[in-house]
């Protein structure tokens, strides 16, 4: 037995040495590429201030010659010089163990993984899944720290297997068995005190005590960024301390101006066969056009291009200047070598392309390989993440503008080509050329082809500079990721990393990613094919052309007009006091405006059927979904069941912390019953299935993986339903009620609120910056114009970045694999939004004509004689005049009456160490408000091609 263990130890040691060698070699390669771009690792103790432009995880040898995980941080100084510094930070994961067994498990793991673990620490965190956690109970966790991520992943495999087994055993467990195991563990601990190696301790498997594993799948660079509060796009002062001591990194929020990184935007033109897509194996690169910080360059391949191209200018608009220097190279090898040499000469921080991940970079890489040039070795770029991967480089970023267009530009799907984007965003018509003509033009009209080639580089560069650059680096200041990832990841992933950052701040342990249940059964025994919630309500009510100068027939409801007359004072008070924050006593002309509205309503009441010119409005709810979340204190962890409430100390008969809200569930299920499903399962257990690998033995049903079993069950059940029921799906709608805990830890709601308020701040600052630009243009001071425009772009990009994340909080909770996942929450948000718009429609239908219902607003026409805008004069210090839209005020009063949360709990004092419980105050909350856009001159609603149908959102 001893010799076997020694052999295993030696094998593991050899494997570890190999891993160390590979990691060390990789680290040296990375450092060599970084040096090519001017990023040298600083080791002196001099203090430097720099703008953090990029981060990457790496592995380096520490003073003990051991490979350790670290984070490379790439800095840019104000004078343009660059450096990198490295922070050694141990990756870790957290374990939840059975009550009272953490010491034994820690001792066992320390011995078992003595060569792989750095340390084991006992910590406490808030766990929102813990029963009765509101009473102040904390989750006890074991924090396992490792020298590097590969060591952590090896140990994690064992721990994951143990957790999976324990979970399956737990499902079959009873309360009696739990009591038995608890008494057994007590006996074990008692025996353990008698001496090492005595008693039943020999036979205990301590893996059985591991209940859950947390925070094991957080990417390393995200982990370090969250824990050390390090973000790209921010200024820091850094001082290294030598050895393995981490550098002192101090944020510098006082520095606002951003440095100007070297940006290279490029585009290639290639040969191609008629009616074929370019093939990198046979075709050649005939031109590379690129811009570096506003200066254009063009390299031509004279083997394809018939004559030398002279330097020229391509400036589509005065603000998009493009002077091009041309290099005429003898052949394709010369062209590629010139491009690579120029890159290493200017050392760009950022490479910009348009669909470069899937065309430009792979084409250049393949053509370079033909001439024995390794693109990774030459300029550091290579494909990452397999077949569908992106082309990335460590010291320089590759930002593909197409990713921004798809996710953040809000352009329709058909307008994602570079030409269409240039038209809509840069407001000019780019040069267009038939791809079939390009090879002919290379011979007959090289100058025209050169003009076309550079037009793409100019469009890409200025699109990036105007929209993508400020946006991505604004997001980088709040999201713990590198800019490359921020551009390419979905908004749900950005939202999750932001929530992880906020959860860490308030000491909340992250939940694990949601895992969907295989072949889930409904309460009445049907297998669910899919389940979701009913989304927002969108409806097209009319089609045609509506103009403000063409009279329209209205048929008003006198009862509704009477109701409005009775509520005039209440509506105006709500608009002035609640929305504007001005006391009624400060308003000078309140009675005059009130009587003016009453007389206008009386005229409408006397003649309800009228032909008059319409007023076209769009009444929409500002940030509807985030405000519904905030008003009702909605968050995934606050969706509670009766079992959660039963375990809670605050669950008393007079408690007001439970708020019940409805949502619409929609499920698609197979029509077969539970008995039929079980018969099919029994039948499958008697059959044999294909081998795991060619030539292997056939497998029984229980030998298949759980996913394969579920697939076979579903396929067999679908076939059965097709024959027996003549259909494979039945759709069912249900109105369900969920309980929202109003006392739950509010970190999610606080994050949403902070984002909403910050976005409003940036919107206000954008208005101020726009006014400053106008003033600067009038003064004619070039320096002031540039500075003012820079501030305008900065604040506008910040408010856009916050809007992007703010709109993701609602959709994120229904994302597959989300850490904070909740279908009821998403359903409640949608149904509440739908009810608000439906209620608004009921009012508008009785005083005007609704034209179209959007997810968060309503397009409508009202009679011109309906009360519209009114100005109130006040004695208030800040607001001397108030402009109030009466139709808007009516809808906001309706929202206050029907959608206010009367039981919003605010935490006044948290649980204290002396045993005093938390204290909450209860108040009414409603932050849902309509905003009025208009009046518009005209609205065109196109008709559908099919009879009886209307086009939505057109």
Overall 3D shape: globular
Bin the strand percentage: 15-25%
Report, as a whole number of angstroms, the end-to-end distance. Answer: 76 Å
**Poorly predicted runs:** 1-14, 193-200
Strands in their spatial order, largest beta sheet:
13-14-12-11-10-15-18
Helix content range of the residues, please? Answer: 40-55%
Largest sheet: 7 strands, mixed
Domain count, please report it: 4
Mean pLDDT: 88
The structure class reads alpha+beta
Total number of β-strand segments?
37
- Compute the gyration radius: what is it? 33 Å
The tally of helices reads 26
Q: Helices, strands, pairings?
A:
Layout: H1 2-36, E1 47-61, E2 67-76, E3 82-88, E4 92-97, H2 102-112, E5 119-125, E6 139-145, H3 149-171, H4 175-192, E7 210-214, H5 220-228, E8 234-239, E9 248-251, E10 263-270, E11 285-292, E12 295-301, E13 312-313, E14 323-329, H6 332-346, E15 350-353, H7 360-370, H8 375-379, E16 382-384, E17 390-392, E18 397-400, H9 401-408, H10 418-426, H11 438-444, H12 446-476, H13 483-488, H14 491-505, E19 528-533, E20 539-540, E21 544-547, E22 552-555, H15 558-566, H16 568-579, H17 590-606, E23 609-612, E24 614-621, H18 624-631, E25 639-640, H19 642-646, E26 658-669, H20 674-685, E27 688-689, E28 699-700, H21 706-724, E29 730-741, H22 747-779, H23 782-806, H24 808-812, H25 823-847, E30 849-853, E31 857-863, E32 869-873, E33 881-885, H26 886-899, E34 901-909, E35 919-925, E36 930-936, E37 938-941
Parallel strand pairs: 10-15, 12-14, 15-18
Antiparallel strand pairs: 1-2, 1-8, 2-3, 4-6, 4-7, 5-6, 8-9, 10-11, 11-12, 13-14, 16-17, 19-26, 20-30, 21-37, 22-23, 24-31, 24-36, 25-29, 26-29, 27-28, 30-31, 32-33, 34-35
